[in-house]
Each structure stands twice: as structure tokens, then as C-alpha cells.
Amino acid sequence: MSDVLSSYPLLLRGAWVTIQLTVYGSALALVLAFVFGLMGGARSAWVRAVGRVYVEFFRGTATLVLMYWLFYALPLIGFRFAPMFAAVLALGLNVGAYGAEVVRGAVKAVPKAQFEATIALNMRPWQRLRRVLLPQAVALMLPPFGNLLIELMKGSAVVSLISIADLMLRAQQLRQSTGQTTAVFLVILVIYFVIAQVLQLLVRYMERRADIMLGRRPGRAARSALDTLGAAK
Amino acid sequence: MATTDPAAEALPPREHADGIRFDGVVKRFGDNVVLRELDFAVAPGERVTLIGPSGSGKTTILRLLMTLEKVDDGVIWVNGHPLSHMKRGERLVPADDKYLHKVRGDIGMVFQQFNLFPNMSVLRNVTEAPVHVLKLSRDEANERARGLLDLVGLADKADAHPAQLSGGQQQRVAIARALAMQPKILLLDEVTSALDPELVAGVLDVLRDIANETDITMLCVTHEMGFARDVSHRVLMFDQGQIVEEGSPEKIFSEPENQRTQDFLHAVLDQH
Amino acid sequence: MIWDWHFAGKILPDLLRGLVVTVEATLLGYAVALVLGLLWAVLRRSPSRVVNQVVRWVVEFIRSTPLLVQLFFLFFALPSIGLTFSALVTGVIGLGVHYSSYTSEVYRAGIADVPAGQWEATTALNLPRRRVWFGVVLPQAVRKVIPTLGNYLIAMFKDSPLLLAITVPEMLHSAYDVGAKSLRFLEPMTIVGVLFVIVSVLSSLLLRRLEFRYGNN
């Protein structure tokens, strides 16, 4: 065990790569989720169809298969990606498809009365979305987005199979150099667990912010006002 | 309630257009005919109350005017323009987004359930559309909004959150929000029905003030007969998608001629 | 390099054999996940705080760490404590245990949905604990969550390529083998990708029909 723990710089470097993959992958997934998710609620049947095809196709694809295809098959027809790029692309495309469904569902779940109020105020379609529907929908998106973020972080372990030096690959190297299989994998399982818990805290924090924005729980200003009230009594 | 000068300035100026006209309007939901060949007109500045049993099509009329629903037949005219249809050459064709945007500019609506935006402060609720739709500067919009919040007695709640207000306060904000767009026509859809009884009076007082101090055209669906008697010039009694009786509030409430009007008024007044 | 239909046809049988292993591993792993998940869910309702908190964190741990790492852990750690399984069995255990953390949440929601009155009725009838769970609570809870559980079958199917990392000859593994031997990766990888999409889209369509039927009952 001490062999494993003394190699912590190696594991930290690996963990850093895992975090980078998670950040880049989820940034791509977020953009794709909004683009295709909003297409799914469009008025034009053609636009909706494009959104549908993206979602069905990439939800149906296994991340690892997609990544292998990008990494092994595409170079043969002239597209060569850096491993990191192929990995982020595969993770982002895959999780983005799930995210698109979340976005579409959340926008649909905003009460119709809110939409009617935007019409009564003569807002343009884009303004309705940007000013009223999306801010409310985002609050609904956060919990499922949090789950997807964890899924993406966990899914990033597969990049070790195309030789990216993430936490998983570092563990393999360490296993070979120390021979302490069980200890190595236990340690990195714990590291992954810690990363996941931190991500969860982050999402919870954003959920709280969204709740305050929607007035579902008192914000700091209101809270301190309540505190003064309590003190006065 | 005292009205301050900025509030009065924030309201629409006195100018007349030619009002509202329904020409043979038909509205169906599936097999259910809600409005059958409805004809009626409202003059500019006139305040009209629509009464009648639920399901008689009153709310549908307001929703059609707000373009939240589409007519199945007939034409609605607002200030000389056909609503939901536009002229192409001599023919009337279904309106597109751009045309609807233009005609909606004259109309404002207050909903039964307030429909305030929960993601904005009270002030923001009132300024959002003036800033982004009317392209007012933030300062102008704030000034107008503060005047209107003062008018509805909520100047001190500008920075509060809708969820922190009572239903009556929320509805008064919703009224300020509608007025901030300076509509020529204000549609009031059962604006006190969702309120606890003790909060109704505050909202109705605000509406009385607006009725007394502006010449905004009002179309009002309500079960508050006292309010209807006080503010309206004319009352229309609806049943099964048609007007069965109309007249001044004195006539309708004191000596209704139609049997269905009498039955309806008995039923409503017994409840209160 | 361009697409070679002849080559594609030649390697298809190999890939389909891989698909059979993939489906096998998925179904067996799913069975493990369904049973183990139910066990977790019932233990979470245990009156002992120690039991339900331990189970809670074990499940949370399994769920928030990567399946791939868990597979390696099982693959290398089990033999070191004297348990030697074939790669496929290790893979099935790994898939099953990992997904039991998801199914347990589904069952938990289903159990929470059973009206309090049902529990009170079992107390009033003085039913033994076994009958409470198997006779009253679980039949109602499980029935409601069947469509949701179905989604995890598809999710597992898409995670099954990870088994290649512990040398299970599943479909992606076969494709990689073929590619490495012939130095042609385009056809095997593309075929595997297409097969995956076809199987998972078809099964999600099937699932939606099932969901519809259950929804109507």
C-alpha cells in the first residue's frame, strides 16, 4: 500500500487529466444539448427531425465504440484526431444526446401560462425563450445534468483504452511497476469517488442558486432581513 | 388610493382608435362549439363586462383577442386591423408572426393566475417587456415601472420576489406589468377568482382607479357583480357561446329581461 | 483506403459471434442487477441505522466510480483472494454489481410510492415481515417501475464493450482483433458501431411500446 501511496504524483497527474476530460467533455455536451434540445422544440418539422436523429443516433451509440471508431477507423479515410480530441468528441457527442433530451423536456415542462404571459407582453419568440422560458427551464435541468456530469466523469475512464494517460491508465502503469493490484485499484476508486462527490456538491450549489433565483428559498438579502426580524423579537 | 403624478403619466394618453369588432366569430375545441357566429363591438374607451355561466365562452373571447387562440371562422377587428388575419391584396390570409407582433402591441392582458415570471424580481417583471419589446432604456423603463408600482400600492416591493408576495399583491404587479406596455385595450380574465376573499378588494380598488383615471378600453370577465356595476359602461350576458342579453349595468342587474340572465344572477348573488 | 464490401462480408460472422457474447453478458449482468438492486433497496428500509447507512454509502460508492475500474478491480483482485472466474463471469458480476446501484434507486422510488395505507394495513393484519415485502409491497412497487428498469437494460448493453478490457471476446473486442490482424479498422469498427445503434434503437422502440402498454393498464 505504501508503494502505491508514495507514487501519488503519478496518480495526481492522472486525476488532473480525468478532470480535464470531464470539463472539456461536459462543455461540448452542454453546447450540443442546448443546440439539439432546442431544435427538438422547434416549430419546423424538419428542424425537429434533425434534433431527433442526433439524439436517437448518439444515445444508441456506446461511447467506447464511438471513440474506437473515431480513433481507429476515421484515420483510414484521412481524418486523424489526437487521442484527447477523439476522446472529448466521443464523450461530448454521447452525453450531449442525453442532455438534449433533458433540455427539450425541461423547456416543455415550463407551465404554459408563462408562455402565454410572454405573448400578452408581445415578446418575440427568441425573447420568450431567452428571458422567461430558459431561465426557468434551467432550474429543472440542473438535477439531471448533475447525473449526466457524473456519468461523463465515470465514462472518461475508457479513454485509457486509447492510451490517454488519465487516472485509469496511471493505475495500470502503477500496477505493473508495483504489482500491488488490489491496493492500486482501491486507491483510484476512492479518488474517482472523491471527484464525483465534489462534482455533486458543485451541482447542489447551482441548484440552490437556481432555487433562490426562482424565489423557492430566501436569498441572502431576504435571509438577513429575516434574521434581523428574529433578533428584534 | 392616492395617485401620484408619475403614475398618471405612465398610463396611456387620451387618444381614440376605433375599438374592437367581432364579425361572425366561430371557435371550436374539437366537437365543442364555444362561440357560434358571435357579433359584437366595443367602442374605444368603453368598459365592458362579460358575465355568464362558466363554459359560456367569455374567457375564450379574451384569449382570442390576445391571440392565444385562433378563430375557426369569422374575423376579429382591432382598431381597424383584422386580428389573426392580414390583408394580402384584397384577400384576408392567416397572420404571420410579424403581423401578430404588430397588432398585439395595442392589447394587454391580466390573467386569473397572475402568471408573473418567477425568475425575475417584481421590478424586473414590469420592466422586462418595455425594455426588450418597446426598446425603452433601462432608466425610462424603471421610472415607468416605479410609477405604476406606486399606482398599485406596491412601490416598496420593487425588489421583492413574486413568490414572497400574497396573491393579491402578485395580481397588482401583474396589472402594473400589463399597463407598462401602454396598451389601448386591457383584457381582465377573472382577475380575482384565484384570490382569497380578503385580498379581492385591494385588486378591485386598483382597477377602479385605472377605470376612473384613464380612458383605456377594458374587457372584463368577472364574477364580482358589484365591481362590474361600478366600472362598466355595458354588460354582456353570455350563454352557450352567444350573447343572450346586453345593456347598462343598471338594466342588467336591476331589471334583467332574459330568463337565463335572471337565473344566473340569482345563482351568483346567492353565493355571496 | 475505401470501403471494401467483400471484406466487410467476410468479417461479419466473427462480429456477430461477438454480438452474441455481448448480448449474453448484458442479459446475465441484468439479472444480477435486478436481484442485487432489489436487495439493496430492501436493506435501505432496514430499521437499523447502521445497516441502511452502510448500504447507502456502498451503493453511492459503486454508482459514482467508473465501471471500467471496477471491472479491473474484480479481474485482478478476485483471484488474489482465491476466487477465480472466467473473464465473462467476472464481466457479468461487474456489470451486474455496477448497475445494481442504479436499479436499487429505481426500486427505492417504487417502494416509496407505495401508499402509507398499505403498510398500515399489513400492520393491522399482523402480517409477518416476509409477507409484507413479498405479498404486498414489492408486487406493487416493482410493477410500477418496470419501464424505468427497462432503460437500464439498454444502458448496460451500451456499457458492455468495456468488457473487452478484461479480454471478454465481445463484439468490439472481435472488431479490434480483426482490425489488428488485417490492419483494416474501417470496416469492423463501422459495422460494430452500426450494429450497436441498430440494437439499441430497436430495443428502445420496443421498450417504449411496453411502457405504453403498462401505462395503459
Report on the architecture of this protein:
- The complex is a heterotrimer of chains A (233), B (272) and C (217).
- Chain A is an all-alpha fold and 233 residues long.
- Chain A has a single domain, classed as MetI-like fold, CATH 1.10.3720.10.
- In chain A, 81% of the residues lie in helices and 0% in strands.
- Chain A is built from 10 helices and no strands.
- Chain A has helices at 2-6, 8-39, 45-60, 63-73, 83-109, 112-120, 125-155, 167-178, 181-213, 220-232.
- The N and C termini of chain A lie far apart (58 Å).
- Chain B is of the alpha/beta class.
- Chain B has one domain: Rossmann fold (3-Layer(aba) Sandwich).
- In chain B, the strands form 3 sheets. A 6-stranded mixed sheet of chain B has the order 8-9-10-3-11-12, sandwiched between helices. In chain B, strands 2-1-4-5 form a 4-stranded antiparallel sheet, with helices on one face.
- Chain B is globular.
- With 217 residues, chain C is mainly alpha-helical.
- Chain C has one domain (5-216): MetI-like fold (Orthogonal Bundle), CATH 1.10.3720.10.
- Chain C has 8 helices and no strands.
- Chain A binds chain C through residues 56-57, 59-66, 68-69, 72-73, 76-77, 150, 154-158, 160-161, 168, 171-172, 175, 181-182, 185-186, 188-189, 192-193, 196-197, 200, and chain C through 1-2, 61, 63-70, 72-73, 76-77, 80, 158-162, 164-165, 172, 175-176, 179, 184-186, 189-190, 192-193, 196-198, 200-201, 204.
Beta-strand segment tally of chain B? 12
How many domains comprise the coordinates of chain A? 1
> What is the strand arrangement across the widest sheet of chain B?
8-9-10-3-11-12
Q: Total number of helical segments of chain A? A: 10
Average pLDDT reading of chain B: 88
Radius of gyration of chain A, CA atoms, in whole angstroms: 22 Å
Order of helices and strands of chain B: HEEEHEEEEHEHHHEHEHEEHH
**Number of helical runs of chain B?**
10
Mean residue pLDDT of chain A: 88
Euclidean distance between termini CA atoms of chain B = 25 Å
Radius of gyration of chain B: 19 Å
The helix/strand series of chain A, from N terminus to C terminus, equals: HHHHHHHHHH
Binned, the helix content of chain B reads: 25-40%
Under CATH, the topology of chain A can be stated as: MetI-like fold
